[in-house]
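Incident log entry.

Two folding requests arrived from the same account within the same minute. Monitoring flagged them as a possible duplicate submission, but the sequences differ. Recording both here for audit purposes.

Request one:
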Amino acid sequence: MSSNLLPVRQALRQKLGIDVSPATAWRWAKRGCRGARLETVRVGKRLFVDEQALDRFVRAQQAGPAAAAPAVERSPEETETLKRAGLLSD
């Protein structure tokens, strides 16, 4: 990581224009999202990130279908109920 570190939430706000909760920032750093972890440095109780690490994390989120969650298996009854409710297409 470079020496130009920003707090995670501030970096996301500046670079992407999004505001995430502290819990989301922590989860992305510790558990990741769609198979990619946000590389951070912890200083005291705060998480910091550099621009390159943030770019890698964002690119991993845009990887497409290969990074998507596995399909959910439903019973035929559940499937039919969701279709009737308009929540599932054929």
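Request two (distinct sequence, not a duplicate):
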Amino acid sequence: MSNRLKELFKRFLDNNISPEEKKELMGMALETGLQDELKQVIKDAWQQTGEDEDITDVKAGELMQKIFAKAPERNNKLVSIGKRTKWRSIAAAAAIVIAIGAGAYYAISHKPRKPAEIVKVSELPADITSPQTNRATITMAGGKTVYLDSAVNGTLAVQGNIQVIRLGDGQIAYRGSAKELIYNTLTNPRGSKVINMTLSDGSQVWLNAGSSVTYPVAFIGNERKVSITGEAYFEVAHDRTKPFTVSKGDLQVQVLGTRFNINAYDDESDARITLLQGSVKIKHGKKESMLQPGQQAQITSGIKIISNTDVEQVMAWKNGLFVFDRAGIQDVMRQLARWYDLDVHYRGEVPEGKFKGEISRDLSLSQVLKGLTATRIHFTMEGGNRITVLPE
């Protein structure tokens, strides 16, 4: 096991590791823990640099503590650890291995009187796996509900000349034409895998857990309008004669053909529209603004434009990841609650701290929480999906 860990660590150090090997390393870390073995791996890697100074077990341990206290940036370099020597690359690689072992790497900003400690994780009395199926439903215009988790491939329903089809990859598509507007609603509940649908005009929409989209089975007239709740990513088919509008309450996003993400969960403090390609017009009440690729509009009482947005972080949910960037525990738990369908409560004062890192959405809840408990935040679980966040 140690030899394999050493080999995979070296591949991390050389930035030459496959996705399969990364998953293997994640599994090893979760099964065995890394504190003692990683110290030895760090020492071995340091010796291979040819540096004159020896690295002691104490130094290796201190380095691990520094890694936990100062998380690496997304480019796998430490914010600051001493001089610009080979220590930095070794420390960064070690931090990544620790990150995989814990499920993620976290930067904690406390007001503590002593440094954060690495706490042994106790087993939870129950566990919840990541969503294994898609539990989405389509509500037809007449009120009929189609449950997609039990639907077979092929035609799911017929509305006039419109067919609702489930494709081989699980995607939902609409085929045909209509003479009047008939609306359907695709709902993807909490605890459900992301679902993808192709609208009648060829536009595609992906829905995150806890989201829905209401749309006409066929677009008629000189406009295309849909409304959403929660979070959705759109790849809009270009049609200069028919603008495409996505709305949530008094928020409207108007495009001709583009790719963008809209996060408009009711329990978030603001709505966020992030543009990946093309251009969009944002309307909120009487205010308007244009977005360019890489920009994000944050909507509260007004429209705030943020440039150079981390698109990778925004699109993490669609790509099977949680990515946190200085996120508070409540933000983290809201995302976990939607994915694992949790009922989250807080006992006493809400723990402080900011989390930074990424974690696979394929992990079970207990594996994710093991990463969080390394920050001295603890949890209790009862009643199937009720989870309580405890102070330090």
